[in-house]
Design brief:
Blueprint lengths: L2 H15 L18 E2 L15 E6 L6 H8 L2 H6 L3 E6 L3 H9 L5 E4 L1 H10 L5 E10 L1 E5 L14 E4 L5 H12 L14 E4 L5 H7 L4 E5 L2 H6 L4 E5 L10 E8 H6 L1 H20 L1 H16 L5 H7 L3 E3 L5 H14 L14 H9 L14
Parallel strand pairs: 2-3, 2-4, 7-8, 7-9
Antiparallel strand pairs: 1-3, 4-11, 5-11, 5-12, 6-9, 6-10
Length: 369
């Protein structure tokens, strides 16, 4: 074949590869509903890595803004080169873990409680935490006419997103430290813990069926827009005001077979967090644009402006706080004492951080040996 023909052919193929094929799907912002497949196929450019595609899962929540922005801005895809990114969105941790176990996704952004539950139920065989994504973004918001101080919570009805989820465990632990008694399973006791889907919590608050909620953003700020007041930011309960709210997990099978792809996604996450922290207003708009694409409706300006500052976008998975959250779940009766040894493999992340001139992060003694 003449050289000019080869060049023309390559250019034609490159032009064809640049045409994106988008298959959209809607997903709500609440916990507890079924997974929605976005399956957004972005034309990949550059050298393909060891896998043709990588399937990424995340929630359409602000605490997953690293994933929202990294997807929206094409940062993940740029790092993946010729390996295609395929996205699925979820509204509950258990459904994302099920997808990972069923080999429907390879990598996911997810909260600490489902990470712990998934790892322990599989006896340490299904996943590894390979990075962090966000800290904070959880608040206790209340009806100021009924609740003026923390002691006023006694006898009141307070919502959490789901039985045994990350916020439910945190609230039960806080109640226990106050010396109050609540049955973890029923939610009955000195405080009534009402498990309520995040997507309907604002309506429950508006109707008066709950007096407040211990919830992540943007649900907390949605309640504030209805007149609720922030009584406590969960960050204030943690050392250095940091605790993991979003991890990056990967199936052990995929990590072993495609470490280069995992590194590329982690590079994308690190670069996304760097961009978010350097461009707060643009990042906020980017996350909201992605939420609009996924749910059909963006967050109101007041809601997102109030919610955004309470979330820290960081690469450190804050492993010590994961152990503490596991201990809280044990105290609440949701878990037997778990063996979390090996839940982390931070070698790929630390390789990425070192190459970027950033400090390495610790697995708090819970990494693979």
């Amino acid at each position: 074949m003449p050289a000019t023909t080869r060049i023309t052919l390559r250019r034609g193929l490159a032009a064809a590869a640049a045409l994106p094929l988008l298959i959209g799907a809607l997903a709500s912002c609440g916990y507890g509903s079924e997974a929605k497949n976005d399956e957004k196929k972005v034309a990949a450019e550059g050298e393909k890595l060891s896998a043709d595609t990588v399937r990424l899962g995340y929630f359409p929540n602000l605490t997953h803004a690293t994933a929202l922005v990294g997807d929206q801005e094409g940062i993940f895809q740029k790092e993946l080169g010729g390996t295609q990114l395929k996205v699925s969105t979820f509204n509950a941790g258990p459904s994302e873990i099920e997808a990972l176990n069923a080999d429907s996704i390879d990598i996911g952004f997810i909260g600490p409680s489902p990470s712990i539950n998934g790892y322990t139920k599989s006896k340490g065989t299904n996943l590894r935490i390979v990075g962090g994504s966000a800290s904070g973004g959880v608040k206790l918001v209340v009806n100021p006419e009924k609740i003026k101080t923390l002691d006023d919570l006694k006898g009141k009805k307070i919502a959490t997103p789901q039985l045994g989820n990350t916020q439910d465990v945190a609230f039960l632990n806080w109640i226990s430290e106050k010396g109050w008694k609540v049955d973890a399973q029923s939610g009955k006791g000195d405080v009534s813990v009402v498990r309520t889907d995040n997507k309907i919590t604002p309506d429950a608050y508006k109707s008066g069926s709950i007096d407040g909620a211990w919830v992540p953003e943007p649900t907390a700020s949605k309640l504030v827009s209805q007149g609720a007041k922030v009584l406590l930011d969960e960050s204030d309960l943690w050392p250095d005001k940091k605790f993991v709210i979003t991890n990056i997990i990967v199936s052990q099978k995929f990590l072993k077979a495609h470490p280069d792809v995992v590194e590329a996604v982690l590079r994308g996450s690190v670069k996304t967090n760097e961009w978010i922290n350097a461009n707060q207003d643009k990042a906020k708009a980017s996350a909201n644009a992605k939420l609009k694409e996924l749910s059909g409706k963006p967050l109101g300006a007041k809601v997102i402006d109030n919610a955004w500052p309470s979330i820290q976008f960081i690469d450190d998975p804050l492993a010590a706080t994961l152990q503490a959250q596991a201990d809280h779940a044990v105290k609440a009766g949701f878990l037997k004492q778990p063996d979390l040894n090996g839940i982390y493999d931070l070698k790929p992340l630390n390789k990425v951080l070192k190459a970027a001139g950033k400090p390495e992060v610790s697995d708090a003694g819970l990494g693979v040996k």
